[in-house]
């Protein structure tokens, strides 16, 4: 049995790039002026908690 992960890396890197891009876009949208004070935003400043 071979224990090398080398052949899997070329197949996985596009998914890592897409996940990073989606995460960056989502973070930018959550911090936009439109969603900054929305109660559904986990980063919103809440007064009661």
TrEMBL record:
<dbReference type="GO" id="GO:0045259">
    <property type="term" value="C:proton-transporting ATP synthase complex"/>
</dbReference>
<dbReference type="GO" id="GO:0046933">
    <property type="term" value="F:proton-transporting ATP synthase activity, rotational mechanism"/>
</dbReference>
<dbReference type="Pfam" id="PF04911">
    <property type="entry name" value="ATP-synt_J"/>
</dbReference>
<dbReference type="InterPro" id="IPR006995">
    <property type="entry name" value="ATP_synth_F0_jsu"/>
</dbReference>
<protein>
    <recommendedName>
        <fullName>F-type H+-transporting ATPase subunit J</fullName>
    </recommendedName>
</protein>
